[in-house]
Every structure is written in C-alpha cells, then in structure tokens.
Amino acid sequence: MKTRPYLLLVLFFLLSVLTSVAQIAVQPMAGWNLEEKDGSYIFKPEKSPGDIKEFIYEIMAPSIGRGQAFDDWFSDAIDKDMQQAGFSSANTDKKNITTNQTISSFSAEVTDKKGKSWYVTYIAYQTGSNDFRLARVMSSTDIKYYASNMRPVATHFGNLAKQDGGNARATRTSVVQNDDNIVVQADNSGTKGLKTPDINGILIHLEYNYAPDGKMIRTYYPYLVLNDGSIYSEPVASPYVFDVNLSKEKEPKKWGSWKLKGNSFIVEWNNRNETEKWYKNWFWATPSISNERIEGSFMTVTGKGNDALKISGAAPKVITFTNSGQFTISSLTDATGNTPASEFSKRNESGTYLLNDYSIELRFNNGTVLHQTFYFYLQGKTHFGIGNYVYVPKRNEQ
C-alpha cells in the first residue's frame, strides 16, 4: 500500500487510555453531523457553502474477537474493507501499521471506483472485553484539510478507547539491518520518559529577535505540548527519555500551561507571571514515522552547531543521513558538496540513526548513544529540527 508520513498524524494526537466499562454509547462531536446506519456511526464536519472537500469519519460496529490476535484481525479488516469499498493503490508494499500500544493506525492514498483520490486512515483498538473496534477516515487529498479534521477525530476516538476499556498491547520492536550491524529500535515505554499518548505535539512559534548588530532576525522556537495541559519550551532530549518531574524541579521557568481558543494559542508561564497569546506565526510540526529515512546533507539555518551533538569537541556544521540508516557529522565536503564516504568510518562523529515519532536515536560508532527530540517543519523531509536547532538542505546554504 502507498503510505505517506503525514497521513500518520493521528497516532500523535491520541489521548492516554484508561480502563472503564465495556458497553458505551458513542458521543457526538460538536460542529459535526452524525448519522447512525447499520450499527455504524458516521460523522461529517459542517462545511461552509461552496466547500467541495469531503471528510468522513465512520466508527464501525464492534467485531467479536473469537480468539484472533489483534494484529492479524486489524490487517485482515483493512484488506476486507478496502476490497469492499473498491479502493485501489498503485503500490502493493506491505502495510506500514503503527501503534501507540493501545490504538493502531494505517494510512494510504487510494483511488476509488470512479478514479477519485482519497487519503484513507484506519484506526482500531481491542476493547476491555477483547472485542475489536475499527474506524475508517476518508478525506479529500488536501493535507491541511485532512490534518485540521484529523485532530478532533483522533481525540474523539482516543476518548472512545478510554471509555471502552481499550487494552494496551506490547509495543512492536522493529529491527533495522544494514551492511555493518543490526540495530534494534527501542520502544517508547521508558519509566521516566513520556509515552506517545502523553504528547499532543511539537508546536513551532516564529519569534523576532535582534542580532548584536541591530538587525532583526527570525527564529523558530519549538515547544513540547502535552495532553495534561502543560507546555515545555525548547525541548532537546527525546520526550521518550525525558524526565518531566526532574525538569519541573530544576528548570521550572521553562514550563507553563496552555489552552487553545479558536486560532489563538495561549501560554501562561510558571514562575514568570507572564502570559503569551500567539494569534499567528505558530504551527504544528510533523512527527516522523517508525524507521523513516532521510537522505542528504543538512546544516543549521544559522550555521551554528548543536551543542547537544558535540562528541569530540567540535560542533557539527553538516549532518549527513543515508537511506541505509547511517549518519555522520562533519564540516568536510568534496568538490560536489557531498560528504566523503570516509567520514562515515570515523568513530566519534558517525554511526546509525533511528527515527520514531518525535525522537531520533543517534548511535555513534564509539558506543555513545544520544536520544534527541526530532520533528519535520514542513511537508516532506527537507526541513527538520533536532533538539532546538533547525536543519535545512546544505545546497541552500552558501
């Protein structure tokens, strides 16, 4: 199936799951039309006159487990529904199903019987009574339209899973193999770190500052936004190894509370007696998907090094990723502007990398392992953040 990284946003909006009663009623959604049909609940957002884009969120009737493993059932259910709906895809690769331990998700771009293209997302969980619940989302192929509607859908389905006593399952462990070694991807279940359902997202805010020479400069600052209503400024360490309690004790001024009113994002900072209202110049960053790959050479927008990536005393000017899972940090390039292959053999500045949600693991050849916050700024893979530094393709830097 053909998948796109930005179609997996749903996993990073889902709320944490708490055990509750098994028999529940599906709640309505404010501003959405609801239709019940043959045991399914069909939601559609209210549209303004003349809006031809479509978005359909359908929660299907629960399926009896009958002893089948959830992963097998979910894969079979996707195949069956795609076939019945008449969806086709030009790509027949193995389904890239991801999970946050309770809710699993699969997304693809498909074509219906009439030749119309859709973004399709399937989300599902296993209930407290060991039955299965599936929902299908169909959206016109407009990423902004998809993302704006997917956020309330993910929240609604996450709440449904909580009420339905959704069962947590063991996180799958992925294995990435290259020519030199085998790297086992760590899951996001550290005892001190956050878990995926704790995270609402990484928010980027454009702020204007003055350089020493008096010139105004534009700076993009990242913020870690959590579902418990708290916000943390300029995250560096991966949220999945981040000790929240220790951070709140040692750096309380970097913490605050947030709320969203319309298009305004409001932050009240702790220990500052300060409230900020961001009416514009803010947007949500896009997480990576498990084992996603980047390819090319990149450098920070300002040309400065990322202190968190200093390994042998020199700040990196260029970081290069390969599609085989290798990286190297270097200021050296050849006549074509590429990093020489010999750089990848250095023990202190090179190694293998793994992307997973809002995290990148850098495993250096000398044994050092760093877990940093990671996020894409724009659609595609050309601009991204590692810690609180922005990286762009090297060819854009003169």
Structural features, described:
By secondary structure, the protein is mainly beta. The protein folds into 3 domains: 5-163, Protein Transport Mog1p, Chain A (3-Layer(aba) Sandwich), CATH 3.40.1000; 196-284, no CATH class; 296-396, no CATH class. The protein has 3 helices and 24 strands. The chain has helices spanning 70-85, 143-163, 244-250, and strands spanning 32-37, 40-45, 55-59, 98-99, 103-111, 117-126, 132-139, 175-177, 182-184, 199-210, 216-226, 230-233, 255-261, 264-269, 274-278, 282-284, 296-300, 318-321, 326-330, 350-356, 359-364, 369-376, 384-386, 389-393. The chain has an 8-stranded antiparallel β-barrel with strand order 17-18-19-20-21-22-23-24. Strands 1-2-3-7-6-5-4 form a 7-stranded antiparallel β-sheet, sandwiched between helices. The longest helix has 21 residues, at 143-163. The chain is globular, with a radius of gyration of 22 Å.
How would you concisely characterize the structure shown here?
This protein is mostly beta strands. It has helices spanning 70-85, 143-163, 244-250; strands at residues 32-37, 40-45, 55-59, 98-99, 103-111, 117-126, 132-139, 175-177, 182-184, 199-210, 216-226, 230-233, 255-261, 264-269, 274-278, 282-284, 296-300, 318-321, 326-330, 350-356, 359-364, 369-376, 384-386, 389-393. The relative contact order is 0.13.
